[in-house]
Amino acid sequence: MSARRDHRLQAWTQRVVLAALLAATLAAIIAHTGPEPATAKGSPTPAASPQERVILWLGPVYLLEPSPAPEPTPQVVARYEAITMTEAERRELAAVIYLEARGESAKGQQAVAEVVFNRVIHQDFPDSIHGVLHQGEGSAVPQFSTIGHLEWAEPTQAQYDAIDAALYGPSILPDEVVFFSQAGENDRVWGEIGGHVFCYAYGWE
Q1: 0.70 cut: is pTM over it?
Q2: What is the DSSP string of the chain?
Q3: What CA–CA distance (Å, rounded) separates 150 from 98?
Q4: Sign of CA dihedral 77, 80, 85, 91
Q5: Cα separations (Å) of 92 from 2, 107, 137, 167, 202?
Q6: Under the phi-then-psi rule, with left for phi > 0, alpha for psi from -120 to 50, and beta for the rest, what region is 166?
Q7: 44 CB neighbour count, 10 Å cutoff
Q8: pLDDT > 90: what percent of the chain?
């Protein structure tokens, strides 16, 4: 039985119990007060005693189904816990994923997002999303060749879903994978996803 069905059954049971209690209370009040005594025609009605002056007012009773339990807040995967991301950085990242990998599968787009996050936590790259995305901008070889075309990007929910999938896991790439390209950045290849080859960082001697 689902949790929602359990909530509905519980709410229905509460309604039945409350209705029974109200009926029993009303019956007890009527039995206690009894009918008013008959009086002779024209005789003043005797004042009721305090015990007899029973006023019962049942206002509207609102029986609401219990609110569903809030969804648990997703936890960022441990390796990305130190990463902070502004809304502007999130939009930029979605735009880069759109430009670099919009034709790839959800897995392929998540992997591109993970490469960005892996760079943020890697000692050889800037320590912010903005810094990683704009590294080398204006030079002959920017780290992301599409960075100069952000105004043309039209990211969709798929790119934002890729960001969230990378942040909250399960992860696809090891955290040492910091390159992706169509031909492969170096000979330290992790593997391929769609049209991209993913590579580990250079192993400097």
Answers
A1: no
A2: --HHHHHHHHHHHHHHHHHHHHHHHHHHHHHHH-PPPP--TTPPPPPPPTTT-----------PPPPPPPPPPPPPPGGGTT----HHHHHHHHHHHHHHHTTS-HHHHHHHHHHHHHHHTSTTS-SSHHHHHHTTTTSSS-SSTTGGGGGG----HHHHHHHHHHHHS--SS-TTEEEEESS-SSS-EEEEETTEEEEEPP---
A3: 9
A4: negative
A5: 40, 19, 14, 16, 26
A6: alpha
A7: 7
A8: 57
Q: Which residue has the tokens 């001697």?
A: 205
The per-residue pLDDT of the chain, averaged, comes to: 81
Distance, CA of 75 to CA of 93 (rounded, Å): 20
Tokens read off for 36: 């008013």
Distances (CA, A) of 24 to 31, 86, 195, 201: 11, 60, 73, 77
Nearest to 172 by CA among 119, 110, 83, 96: 110
Which two structure tokens, joined as six digits, stand for 155? 């990211």
Alpha carbons within 13 A on the beta-carbon side of 78: 1
Residues in the chain: 205
User: Which amino acid, one-letter code, is at 155?
Assistant: P
pLDDT digits (tens, 9 = 90+) for 74-117: 899 999 999 999 999 999 999 999 999 999 999 999 999 999 99
The residue assigned the tokens 């992860």 is: 171
177 touches 190 (CB < 8 A): yes
